[in-house]
Amino acid sequence: MVRLVVGLGNPGTKYRGTRHNIGFVWADRVAARLGIKWSGQRRYQAEVAEWPLDGHLVWAMKPQTYMNHSGRAVAPFARAKGIEPESILVVHDELDLPPGTARLKAGGGHGGHNGLRDLVEELGTKDFLRLRLGIGHPGDRSQVTPYVLGRAAPEERQAMEAGMDRAAEVLPDLAAGNWQRAVNDLHSPTPSDS
Q1: How many domains does the chain have?
Q2: Is residue 193 situated within a structural domain?
Q3: Domain membership of residue 77 as a residue range
Q4: Please, are residues 179 and 106 in contact by the beta-carbon 8 Å criterion?
């Protein structure tokens, strides 16, 4: 059962709308859909909200520590609330998936993602849940940093928004502990895929 949803990103206007901030964007879209406002929690270096999802209360968080130190916000909050890593869903950008693709994953390595790397270190485990939001790959490793810190073209952004909306649809199942149903629904092809 998911008890904490963490959208990864970098704070500040400089990074707003960049591919690397898709976790923040997704969290903001869900909060807006639910009519929920974020509140700054200086103690945890994060913006925090409570999301009521089908009778379940889920915490949501946007760390304000910068991506590379995301775990410094998440780990103390999770400990204070008694939330096990297996009940944390981390929403992040994924270079290995095309824009618009959203995939759920339980555990795994950090794949070179600095936000995930810090979470693994601070939580002391890699056994947390992930929602991987595809941003595509620039094609050359040397271009990854400017690519993830850049903004998507309009057609890419449109695909990403559709993927984010699809991912938001499975949140009630995740909150209720229906992991396999959420995976099946999210990973099944849409009519536009066929």
Answers
A1: 1
A2: no
A3: 4-187
A4: yes
- Residues 40, 93 contacting (CB under 8 angstroms): no
Strand segments, DSSP code E, in the chain are: 4-7, 39-41, 46-53, 56-63, 88-94, 102-106, 129-134
Q: Which of 123, 136, 131, 135 is nearest to 105 (CA)?
A: 131
Please state whether the predicted TM-score (pTM) of the whole model is above 0.90.
Answer: yes
Catalytic site residues? 20
Nearest to 85 by CA among 123, 45, 132, 56: 123
The answer to whether residue 192 is domain-embedded is no
Mean pLDDT of 169-189: 95
- Whether residue 81 is contained in a domain is answered as yes
pLDDT at 194: 47
Q: What percent of the chain has pLDDT over 70?
A: 97
Instruction: Write down the residue that tokens 């890699």 correspond to.
Output: 126
As a whole number of angstroms, the distance between CA 19 and CA 171 comes to 22
Asked whether residue 190 carries a pLDDT value surpassing 80, the answer given is no
Tell me if 129 is assigned to some domain.
Answer: yes
Backbone φ, ψ for residue 46 (5° rounding): -155, 160
When pLDDT is cut at 50, 70 and 90, the band that residue 54 belongs to is confident
Sheet containing 4-7, strands listed edge to edge, beginning at the edge strand earlier in sequence: 39-41, 46-53, 56-63, 4-7, 88-94, 129-134, 102-106
Cα three-residue angle 36-71-152, rounded to 5 degrees: 65
d(CA 4, CA 71): 13
The mean of the pLDDT values for the chain is 95
